[in-house]
Amino acid sequence: MIKTRVEGLVAYVDLVPAEGQFTLLDAENLKQIIFALRKLEDSPAKVMRIHGHGGCFAVGADLKTLNIYSGFDAKWFSRLGNTLFGLMRSMPQIIIAEIDGFCMGGGVDFSSACDFRFATARSKFAHPGSKLGIITGFGGTQSVTRQMKSGYANRFFFSGEVAPASFMYEAGFLTGIADNSEEMDKLATALAEKINRKPRHLLTSFKSSLDTSKRMQV
Prior knowledge:
The chain has helices at residues 27-41, 63-68, 71-90, 106-112, 129-132, 140-143, 150-159, 165-170, 181-196, 200-216, and strands at residues 2-7, 10-15, 47-52, 56-58, 94-99, 102-104, 116-120, 124-126, 163-164, 176-178. The protein starts with a strand and ends with a helix. It has a single domain, classed as 2-enoyl-CoA Hydratase, Chain A, domain 1 (Alpha-Beta Complex). By secondary structure, the protein is an alpha/beta fold. Helix 1 packs parallel to helix 3 (71-90). The chain has a 6-stranded mixed beta sheet with strand order 1-2-3-5-7-10, with helices on both faces.
């Protein structure tokens, strides 16, 4: 379930999984997130905060479903994910990911489309494609590595191992780490307040320029 609300100049997006489950980035959830973000795009908010629940930010696609996809289905699903991430990069809002728990596979790709990423110390990250014999169809091998130092990115993708938040912070992927969700909320709130003091047109111009610069990196 995707819950949204706008309070002043801040939009909130809560990724709420069914009880006892994690938030999968399957086709249905991708469509719901795209729909929710498009509604918020024209809101007065300058900042968007995306927060996972249930000990998880997002854990990527449902592998059982992927196994029965035809080549056409897989290509369509990949385009759906990239539609979401492209929307996030083009939105006027500055997007903050707040990660408390597992962030795996496509969930890492999802967080890489955000402008800032905070995580709690207990959070775990992985891109297990090298162990599963697949490469992400969401462009993570490009978008995630642009946010990480080269040696760290190689280790993260080639090993497929679970990495702690401290590793992702050292790699440059995370903006900051907090001891718990309450402290993370304070970090995100403080950053949102600083951003909201800036003119909207300036924020939009900087975001577009920075995204273009990242995409030009080889």
